[in-house]
Amino acid sequence: MFKGYCFPVPGDGEWHTPAVMLNDAEEVFRYTQLQSKLFREVRVVDGDDFIVVQMIDQQYTFPEGWKKFNRVREDNENGNKIQSINLAEFQKPQGSCS
Fold first, then answer.
1. Which of 30, 32, 58, 64 gives a 20 to 30 Å CA spacing to 96?
2. Cβ(52)–Cβ(98) under 8 Å?
3. Does residue 97 sit in helix, strand or coil?
């Protein structure tokens, strides 16, 4: 069992959303993908409140193994980099989130 939190300002422990309970790695992945579009930082912690997954600015920063899900493409109009995932290539995370 995991808990997900969203922060509007990365690294700011001042305010975050209430915890969302997540059951497995697939739910964690879906939660982080969705919430990262709305919040700058998304954290998922285990039962002991240790961070098991973290995203900042739509990029996985932890754990190292989840960085492979970061895909960056260039927005030709503004030169901004935008994260996207090719779902055809996506394999569900297996087992634990670490």
1. 58
2. yes
3. coil
Answer whether 30's CB lies under 8 Å from 22's CB: no
Q: Is the dihedral of CA 16, 68, 33, 76 positive or negative?
A: positive
The structure's pTM equals 0.69
Q: Read off the pLDDT of residues 61-98 as tens digits, 9 standing for 90 and up.
A: 888 888 888 866 555 455 555 544 444 444 445 455 54
DSSP letter string over 22-87? Answer: E-SHHHHHHHHHHHTTT-SEEEEE-TT--EEEEEETTEEEESGGGGGG--EEE-TTT--EEE---T
SS3 38: coil
Amino acid residing at 65 = G
CA–centroid distance for 94 within its chain = 16
